[in-house]
Model the fold of this input.
Amino acid sequence: MRKFFPIVIFALLFAACNNPEPEPQGTTITFVESDSIIANPERGLFAQIYYTSADLASRASASTIEKLRSSSNKMTLLLHSYYLTDYMESDIPQEFLDRLDYNMNQLREGGAKVVLRFSYKSSMDAKDKPWNATPEWIHKHMDQVAPYLQKHADVIYCVQCGWLGSWGEWYYTDNGYRQNPTKDSDYEMRWEVLEHMLQVVPETRQVALRIPAYKRRWLKMRGDSLMSPLTASEAHTGTYKARICGHNDCFVSSSNDVGTYLGGDKEREFWAEDTKYTIMGGETCEKCSYSNGTYALKEMRKYHWSYINRDYRESVTYMWRQDGTMDTILHKIGYRLVLDKAIITSNPKMENEFKAWFQLRNVGFAAPMNARDVELIFVNTETGEKYVFPQEEDPRFWMPGETTTFTLACRLTNVIPGEYKLYLNLPDPYESLHNDPRYSIRLANEDVWEEKTGYNYITTINVNGLPD
Done:
C-alpha cells in the first residue's frame, strides 16, 4: 500500500480548502462540465448479494460485476452479506472462508469494491431464535475472517459492523445481548463487538453502525461527554472516532426512519455533521409520505450519502425512477468533481519548478471518503515517455457543495524538452489498484477522461530546454 499523509497535513489541507488561493499568473485553461453518469469508484448504487452457509457453491462473478459497471446505473459497488447460520456453535469451515477469498478476488478482477456485513439470521421471527451467536463465538468468528479483510483491504469500501441481531442490524438480539439496552452496562458487550471489528478491519477502512445513537453513546462511554461529531482536524486520522461511520437501512421510511432517529433532532444534527467526514449509505425499507423524491434528495444532501441499494425497497426506488429522482441520485450520490479552471506555468523549462493551480467544484452529496493519491503526469507526445509527480493534496477535503482551489507543483528534473500532454491523475493508493483505470476518479468534464489510463487530460504544453 502507498503512503497516507500525517494528521498535520490533513489539517493544513482543510484550512487551505476553506481559504481559496488567489489566481496565479500563467496560462489559463477552462473546462466544460459533463452531464454523463460516471462509473466512479466508491460511490453510487449497489447490488446486494447474499452468501449463506447453506449454499457454499454460490460465488461472485467478475463478468457479472463488469456488466454492472457498464449498465446504465454505472455501478461500482456491491454489498456482500455473509450469513453464518450453520456455524453459531462452531468454527467457520475453510470452504466458507475460501469463498470469501474467491469473491474478493472476483471483485478486483471485475473492477468493483464491496461493503461487507457478517451476521447469522435473516429473520426476526421467534421461531428462528437465537438471532445471533454467543459472545465467545462471535469474537472467534471475527478473528477467523480478519486475515481475509486485511488481505483484501484494497477492494473493501467499508464494513457494516454486523454480527448482532437479525440481518446484523443490532436490534433483534439475544444470547446475552439485550434487545432494548438502557444502562451503560447493557451496552458494554456491544462496544466489545464494535471495537473488535475496528481492530480486525484494516485501519484504512471505516466500520458502520446502524443508528447515530450508537456512536453518540459509544463516545459518551469512552469519555466524550458532549458526544461531539467529528471535526475537520479529527477527520481521517485513523482513530476509532474517525473510523466509525453509519448506515441507515430505513431511509425516508417514516418520520424518524423507523427508529433510526428515535432520539430526535440531536441525533439528526449529529449525523449531519459527522457524515461530512464519515461514510453514509444504506437503503429504504417502507414506502410512505416521506419517501417522495424531493424529500429523499434533501436528506441525501443533508447526510452526505455515498451509496444506496439499487433494489430495496423496490416500491420506493421504482417511484424515484418514475419521477426522475433516480437520475439525480445517479449523478450526485457520493462525490462528483467538476474542474472549472486550471492555470499553469507559462513556457515551462526543464529543471525549473512547474505549477498548476486548479479550481474544482464538488457538486455531489459527499466528499471522497477513502484515501486517494493525486498526481501530475507528463506524457511526451512523440516518445510516450511518462513522468509522474506525486502530490500531497487530499481529495477527502474536497467538500460537497463547495469550490476548492489548490496548487500542485513539481520540479521538471530530467524532463527532456518536447511536447507533453499534462494530466491530473486521481488513482487508488493501493499498489494493487493504483494503475487500474477503473479505480481512478474521472472528473465530470467533457473531453478530459482517458479511459485506457484513467488520467484526466488538462492540456498540451511544450517543455523548453535548460533555463538561461
Q: What stands out?
A: The chain has twelve helices and 17 strands. Residues 94-110 form the longest helix (17 residues). The longest strand covers residues 353-362. The chain has two domains: 7-36+336-463, 44-332.
